Amino acid sequence: MTNASISKSPSTDQLSGTTKSTINPQEAAHFGALAADWWDSNGSSAMLHRLNPVRLGYIRDAINLHFGVEATDLRPLAGKRGLDVGCGAGLVCEPLARMGASVTGLDAAPENIAAAKAHAEPQQLDIDYRNIAIEKFGESGFDLVTSLEVIEHVDDSDSFVAGLANALADDGLMILSTPNRTAMSKLMLVDLAEMTGRIPKGTHHHDQFFTPVELEKLLGQAGLQVIDTTGISYSPAHGFSLSDNLALNYLMTVVRG
User: Fold this and answer.
1) Less Cβ crowding at N or C end of the chain, within 10 Å?
2) The CATH homologous superfamily of the domain defined by 3-256
3) How many CB atoms lie within 10 A of CB 64?
4) Confidence of residue 15 (pLDDT cuts 50, 70, 90)
């Protein structure tokens, strides 16, 4: 199956005229079941914890460039609004809040939202977590919109990307990441990862991955422009790192076209 079928066009129900939900109930249930140990760096989300510093480094560099911020500024998002879509238990929301942003996090699994709130509260991080789909969210004007390792899990990629676009301010910055659909990603992120227990079984479905060309086309249809695509590579010796090699996973910097 290709991503032409995953997008499930059109994005509105032809009989009712209502927007189709982007939430896949099975995917939401899968990740909701992992909520209890999402913040355990040695638990079921261990690989995500190892990946997160690389993603955050890329996001910080993009923020510096887009908003003209000095690398030494500890609060580069002060006075700005950030939205993380598919936030899980807050692994990206919390760093964005520490960078000074007023952060909203959306997730399909209520268990994840509960875990995110419970983790943020004792740290006095004021993050607005909501269990709602992006197409039903309705708010706009966010300076920064992030959605990392999420689009490959949604039911209607057209509506999902349209929702991201609607949330983004005219001069805003968007960062996406997702696995590439290649033989390498199937071997590393599905076959070996599940066989060795590094990723819970059922986390990834290779036929739902997007190639960079496919994702850039989808973003373009929503009036968005990709201005950078950078790969994420993995080695047992050094872990995850940014790379020119897009075969495993990649990040995109996106703005309005």
Assistant:
1) N
2) Vaccinia Virus protein VP39 (3.40.50.150)
3) 15
4) very low
